Amino acid sequence: MTGKERIYAVLQGKETDKTPWVPFAGVHSGKLKGYSAKEVSQSADKLFESLLEVNRLYKPDGQPVMFDLQIEAEIMGCDLVWAEDAPPTVSSHPLAETPEIPDHIPGPEEGRLAMEIDVMQRMKAAVGDQSALYGLMCGPFTLASHLRGTNIFMDMILDPDYVHRLLSYTTDVAIRLSEYFIDAGMDVIAAVDPLISQISPDHFSEFMHAPFSRLFDAIRARGAYSSFFVCGNATMNIEPMCKTGPDSLSVDENVSLADAKKVTDSYDVVIGGNIPLTSVMLFGNQQDNMKSTVDLIDSVTPGRLIIAPGCDMPYDIPVENTIAIEQAVHETDSVRDMVKNYESAGLEFTGELPDYAHLERPLIEVFTLDSATCAACTYMLATALDAKEHFGDAIDVIEYKYTSPENIARCGAMGVKQLPSIYINGELTYSSLIPSRDELAAQISKYL
């Protein structure tokens, strides 16, 4: 079978000769050709060249063209901060101080969307007969958050009608983009919405069920497959997500793939994931990556499974580690035998934890995957920084990014289970659930 045939077969509930594999190599693709993240995010030629190298080296069954959740937001007035080794991040929110609802739908010729569609068409012509191509868009809720900022979490309580109207608009945007992507030859349309993991099932039912159902119905009506891609600990929303009718879900390492698959199987939904991005792919060795992948495959029931990184791959992931994963997915039996006696050395924490019982002032520690690249982490940190602005020198705020061996080991020493999370004076206060500004302020006040 070709890679494309494997993806199609698994999405249709049919047997495949091998487990399908989709490396979410966004800006990491540029590293393969010596281009920065900024270069492949802004140059069609450099992006196309880099994607072909991903296809050659990593032998994907399915492959995204871009993993950039800021393209729509940029067109719609959000300012971006650029980096050389990460996707851009949103730095301003045009609706932060106004309850207005925009009516402009981005056209295919606007902003970097034009570049993305151009590269989609080139990839379709170059590898589209062998590899299933994924068109990734910013999901309606995260796009609404880009426009509104952290105020949206308070809006869900105080002004639900506004949230419904804003989500209706961002869903219109998502549907239109799905049409552009399908016309450009994309086989799978993925709505990537990291902030879904940050709300309760009740809020999901109230605000998200109708928009996402409408989006996936529209994609299906155009003859393409759909994916609901969420980051963070979305465990409590797996079933609500399935009820919106996607063909597949993608989750990251915060979710137990085995437990989630029991739910997705009951809805005949394919699940994809969830190789750890940093502790394994970035800082592990080849054996770590092979062992993690084999263990992941062995942890779940057969069928309706796509193996993939938990989210957008960090720029500096070693090439050999990703190749090791591809081998473990496509040659599982032989690789299982190779690593059957292998044990990872792990990461040892060599620093010191604060003396939480004797702090001069409340300490708010924000543990994130990376606030520069993870939307849920961005807004979790933003809420903490809002609190810092409110309380000033009465509190301290620090972020620990899960992008260094020391911080990964710190998470282990602290017992951090999900990211992003907020700890106050060493006590877990919020885990994969972004508080409103007022909620966090009330919690902090207890320690003053």
What does this structure look like?
It is built from 19 helices and 13 strands. With 448 residues, the protein is of the alpha/beta class. It folds into two domains: 336 residues, TIM Barrel; 90 residues, Glutaredoxin (3-Layer(aba) Sandwich), CATH 3.40.30. A seven-stranded parallel β-sheet has the order 1-4-5-6-7-8-9, with helices on both faces. A four-stranded mixed β-sheet has the order 11-10-12-13, with helices on both faces. Strands 2-3 form a two-stranded antiparallel ribbon. It starts with a helix and ends with a helix. The model has no long low-confidence stretch (mean pLDDT 96).
Shape, per Cα inertia axes:
globular
CATH topology of the largest domain: TIM Barrel
Secondary-structure-based class equals alpha/beta
Rg of Cα set = 21 Å
Q: Into which percentage range does the β-strand content fall?
A: 5-15%
| CATH class wording of the largest domain | Alpha Beta
CATH architecture of the largest domain: Alpha-Beta Barrel
Number of helices: 19
Contiguous low-pLDDT stretches (5 residues minimum) are none
Q: Oligomeric status of the shown chains? A: single chain
Helix content: 40-55%
Widest sheet: strand order? 1-4-5-6-7-8-9
Largest sheet: 7 strands, parallel
Average pLDDT works out at 96
What's the count of strands? 13
Which features would summarize this protein structure in a list?
single chain, alpha/beta, Glutaredoxin, 2 domains
